[in-house]
Amino acid sequence: MNNQGWQGTFDDPILLPDGRKLITLHDAATVITKLPKPEHDAPEWQAAIEALMLVVDLGGRRSSLASALCVRLADIRSRSSSRARSA
Q1: Separation between Cα atoms, residue 29 and residue 5, nearest integer Å
Q2: Sequential DSSP letters for 71-83
Q3: How far apart are the first and last CA of the chain?
Q4: Residue 54, CA distances (Å) to 6, 75, 87 in order
Q5: What pLDDT does residue 78 have?
Q6: Other C-beta atoms within 10 Å of 75: how many?
Q7: Residue 2 has pLDDT above 50, yes or no
Q8: Parallel, antiparallel, or unpaired for β 21-24 and 9-15?
Q9: What distance in Å separates the CA atoms of residue 67 and residue 48, rounded to the nearest whole number?
C-alpha cells in the first residue's frame, strides 16, 4: 500500500462476495459507511473503521492488517446475509 491517505491502495484488491473490488482505503470506508445503521454500528464494523483510520494515520504501514480485517469482515457480512435470506 502506498502512502496517499484515503486514496492509498491495497497491495492486492479485496474482492467482495458480490463481485465488487475494494482498491483504495476510501473504497473500504465507503462500503462500511453505507451499511444499514444496525450493521454499521456493530463492533466488528467499528473495528474495521478504526483499522482503516490507523492505516491512514500510520501512512500505510499496516496494509496487511487492514486487508486481512476487510476480507474477514466481508466474509462475516456475506455469511450473515446468507443466513438472513435463508431464514
Answers
A1: 12
A2: HHHHHHHHHHHHH
A3: 39
A4: 11, 21, 37
A5: 65
A6: 12
A7: no
A8: antiparallel
A9: 10
Could you read off the pLDDT of 58-80 as tens digits, one per residue? 775 555 666 666 666 666 666 66
Residue 14 phi/psi, 5-degree rounding, is -100, 120
Say whether pLDDT at 39 is over 70. Answer: yes
All cell numbers assigned to 26: 476510501
Q: Quick one: pLDDT at residue 35?
A: 86
The residue type found at 30 is T
Contacts with 51 (C-beta within 8 Å, 6 or more apart), sequence order: 62, 65, 66, 69
Q: What's the CA gap between 10 and 42, in Å, rounded?
A: 24
pLDDT higher than threshold 50 for residue 18 = yes
Return the ∠ at Cα 38 (arms to 27 and 6), rounded to 5°: 20
DSSP output for 13-29: EEEPTTS-EEEEHHHHH
